[in-house]
Amino acid sequence: MIRVYVKKQLNYPVxxxxxxxxxxxxxxxxxxxxxxxxxVSFVGEKSMKxxxxxxxxxxxxxxxxxxxxxxxxxGDFKYPENLPLPLGEIIICxxxxxRQANKEGKLIDEKVLELVMHGAEHLLGKHHx
Length: 129
What we know:
By secondary structure, this protein is an alpha/beta fold. It has five helices and four strands; from the N terminus they run E-H-E-H-E-H-E-H-H. Helix 1 links the parallel strand 1 (about 1-10) and strand 2.
């Protein structure tokens, strides 16, 4: 079973049920059927800059979405058998999503889903040139 957990740093008005449904469908369509979970977190600008600095070594960088596989976060940590395995973490900067949606003339919910799927593609190995 695929589990999706949505976490919000602040009270951002995201539709968690829609995100969970769409992400589960996307992952199933990619052929993933194992017992695993994925986290989707919505953070503010300061947190996203802190994450960029800590994990990417970038000073003052603001990304709309970052994704990290579990091995990038935990290294060689061995998980107990018979428990769902973590696929990774998708981190979205909500204020940046709002700016991008307004600039592109999209609904905020539409832009959120676009970035969640983009982050999921990275977790599955698809990367930019």
